[in-house]
Every structure is written in C-alpha cells, then in structure tokens.
User: What shape does this take?
Amino acid sequence: MTRFVRWTALGVAAALLTAGCSGSSGDDGARDDDKRGNSALDWTKCESTGDAPAPGDEWQCATLEVPLDWSKPDGKKIALALIRAEATGDERRGSLVFNFGGPGGSGVSMLPSYADTVAELREHYDLVSWDPRGVAASEGVRCREDKDIQAAEASVDTTPDTPAEERTFLSDASDFGKGCAKSAGELLGHVSTTDTARDLDRIRQAVGDDKLNYFGISYGTELGGVYAHLFPEKVGRMTLDAVVDPGADMVGHARNQTLGFQRALDAYLKSTGKDPEEGSREIADLLRRIDAEPLPTSTKGRELTQSLALTGIILPLYSKDGWPALTSALQAAEEGDGSELLALADGYNERDASGRYGTTTHSQRVISCLDDKARPSLEETKKLLPEFEKISPVFGPALGWDIAGWCHDWPVPGQHDTPEVSAPGAAPILVIGNTGDPATPYEGARRMADELGKNVGIVLTWKGEGHGAYGNGSDCVDSTVNAYLIEGTVPKDGKVCS
Assistant: This one.
C-alpha cells in the first residue's frame, strides 16, 4: 500500500533517474537551553551509510540527543542524525535548516544532492538538515521485510473488488501496523509532527541560532507551520514550498491529492495533444485491464499489478521532466509490456535492482498515523468512493480506498484532526504555491497563509508544473526567495511568477 503524499520533487527526480537506469505554548520543552548558546555538537567527517557513499569533504555529520518523550525532558533520550555544510561566503548569517518532506524523508542523504540548487544561499548560511525521529539514521523504523513487501505488492489489491479482496486489503494494513509496533516499540507514540517540531527547536539551539531560519518542502511545510505555532517568537526567515493544506483532515488530503494529480495528468495529456477527458478514460481502462490480468515484465518473477501501474504513473507527474518517461511507459503497457511502469514504480518505492526497499514509506506511515486522529471505516470509505471516482477515474479509486487502509487497526491513537499552525506575532513567513502541483495542490498555500495569521503568511504564486517551485526553473521564484532569505526582503503578499 502506497500513499502518494508529501514527498519532494528532488526525491522524485532521483527516483526517475534510478528508474531510467533500471496546540500548546512554545515555552515547555525548550527550558533554559537558549542560555547555553551553541551546544557541544561534535561535527566530524560524514561516513558512508549502507550502500550510499559518504558525501564530499565539505560535509560534516553529528548526532544530537533529544528526549524520547518531550513531556519528560529529563527522561530517556534518542539520537538524531544531522548533516551540515558551512557557509562559503564572508557574510554568514547563521544556519538554514531544511526538511525535504515525506514525512519520512532523510535530510542527511538528501541535502548533499540539493546543495547545487541552493548554492547562492550557502554563501550566507550553513546548510543543515537531519533525519527526523523514526527516520533512517534517527531510530529509523522498518515495519516489513523486503520479501514481504514484494509479496504484498503482488497479492494485495489496493482497489478491492470483492469481499475477499477487501479482507486481504484490511488484513495487510493491520499486519503492517503490527510490524511497525514491533520495530519502533515505545518510539511509535513519539514520532508526531509536534514531537519533531520540538526537536527542530533543539536543533536551532544546538547550532547556536537565536531564531530558526528554515526551508520546508512538502510535508516540511506542515512541520514549519507547527513549529511556528509552538515557537512564534523563535521564527527567523522561514520559507514553505509545496504547501500541505493545514485545514485538511485525512479525507480532505486524499480529496486534494485526487484533484491535484488529475490536474497534473490533464496538463500532461494536453502536452501530448490528447483531450484530457478521453486520455484519462483510456488510462483508467488500462488500469482496469491490468487489475483483471497483470502484465508481464522483464524482471524475473514479477508482474505489473494495477497498484504498481498506478504508482508508475504517479511518479513522473511530480516533475515535468518525467513526462516523456510516462509517455513511453504507457505506450509499452498498452502493447502488453509492464516493464517500464514497473521500473517507475520501483523508483517511487525505493526498490533497488537486488530487491531491497527503502524505508521512507514506513516512516511516512508511522508519523502520519500518529498525527491523524481519523480512522474511517470500510463502510464510511465506500460511501466516499463515487465522489473520488468522479474527481478522477484514474486516481480516485486508489486514493479513496487508501482512506480505509492507511491507518486501519493502528497500534496507537492519532493526535488531532488537523494541525494547529496559527502563529500570531511570528515574523513574516514566505509561503509558495505552485498552480500545477500534483501532490500539494495550490489551494493549500493560501490556506496555510490564512491560518498562520495576518501579516505572517505571505503568499508567492508560481504558475508552473510539478511538485514545488524553488529550483524548478523560475528565475522569478528563485530570486524572490533568495532576496527574502538573504536580505530579508519580504515580497508583497500575492506576488505572482508566471
């Protein structure tokens, strides 16, 4: 089961390349740490992790201890993995901390790949990121073994058509949650966005900054909004790009994404000269045929299921650069070969050629299910399916069914319906919305700005395509963001880059 949420365009670009080759006050918890200034972070040369080589010599790594339970700050500690590259210029203004989304994305592995994009910012800031709690090198959670992931991909229909398929669908969701509980133990109840926002403030203290300068992308925007609510007086220069709608609950997020991916598909189809309605109907028909009879692939022992096919369609919609790969993969699938869509799906699912899977989706689920209080039943979900299918015949069925399966029988209760991001008194926060964003539709940017509060949320609009705006080809966006982060120049609310 895959939820197509909150990942970053940068991560998707890497996946495409791989596929081609193959609510309280902010004072509690912080205590008197600010008085200490820069804590004793021991920055040393980064080591290789797993099969990934160590980044270049300019990158340094460290670990930071934080409380497992922020309500017991003197209790058990966990270690967070951090990475930084020091500012290259003479006019350093502190650290700029990045979260690349997910939830579940590894900042330690992502930041070095992003350095060229933010080279101008690095002249003035130390670039810093980290693996949030429950992610990768920071007590990362693995809920299922690789062989079991592949078995579930082959056997679980994520748009079940019969009572037997429905039982398998829900049983698989329950089994996944049990695996997460076994892996995470007591950490499972302490990986919420609120917990991570408190960790983020500890990072601010540890790097010696009086205020947090922050760049959040995709889910990182929700984290930034929660931080601003908890610690409004500590907000420095904060940019939120590819904004998650803070007013949407679990059903609302699924509805938003169904609309967003259909918009992106429409734009893609128009670029090929096809009528979007007709093209969408053809793709929906293809998916139904694959559901009835999976396609053969060139990978021994693996077929292309409907779920994998949809994942393969989703991936290239995150970036306009992926559209040619989608054209080729769809054509091959129509001709009876599922190999290209399978390669794209494997890229999204972080599956390498040896059959090993990454853990982003594991961490994503444990974080979002602790955040989300909603646990829609099978019956409630079925009532929503016609609405979802009307919004999109391609994405609606899977994203609709996901509502029932994602947190089904989860071992710990969720914390809230929607996150609190109001931040009265905070410094202006730059909120960037892309009108063609598939994963975090544009409307979320205005909602975030409104909920942050008057004179806090400042909206910058880009009329573009793909997930996110900064670094995606708009000089207008990049120069506006750079002027804000480097010079402190706040643009007029509502500025549009076309």
